């Protein structure tokens, strides 16, 4: 483990990836930002805490403490867009989800800086994630890679209206067997929360890159609307009101559904024997 990469090794046929829960930004990068807050605004706040139970299920977890502003380990390293024709952010983003500049004018990362960040952070994250996938695949006939995310419920630049609570992504059915998607959908649909599959979020680079159901690696992404586990301001988001603190009582109903979803992932993998 490095000072920015957290790995917990379990033995169940499940890897949970946390690519966007970090808020650390090296000082030399933060110095070029429009503000420290804006560089952390789009984090998947508290998602690693929301899934704290995953280790109790025997899951392996891989998490970066770094902010996605430093480098987004869930983007295609070539720089190609995951959603051509739609607004999105890149490998080393220069704007927020709302289109605000992340950097002061002239301080944006150039090609050399992007290459350096990829070598320092992107490549080690994926080396670690790939190693854990290989370790578990060597002892299980099939495994599930579950990529855990969240986003504010309303981001007009990215999607219309309020995002459903559960947004399951399987790259339109290519990254996992239908049975896995059905099992996670069933866990979500047994709750009072809304759900969509392969809607606005179909799975990022992690889901698309690692998902290989024919090789026993089934990848699925879960994008949550933040309102299900934390408070969201009614008005404009600002350093004074975002992020709101993690509230275990608020999060408990959603966490119960997520526990059922991860339990279903493990059961699916074991059934492939």
Instruction: State the helicity in percent bands.
Output: 25-40%
User: What class do helices, strands and sheet pairing give?
Assistant: alpha/beta
Contiguous uncertain segments of 5+ residues:
none
The share of residues in extended strands comes to 5-15%
Distance between the termini: 32 Å
Summarize the structure.
By secondary structure, the protein is of the alpha/beta class. It contains six helices and seven strands, in the order ββααβαββαβαβα.
Question: Any overview of this molecule?
Answer:
This protein is of the alpha/beta class and about 270 residues long. It has six helices and seven strands. Helix 4 runs antiparallel to helix 6. The protein starts with a strand and ends with a helix.
Tag the structure with descriptive keywords.
single chain; 273 residues; alpha/beta; seven-stranded mixed beta sheet; 6 helices; 7 strands; globular
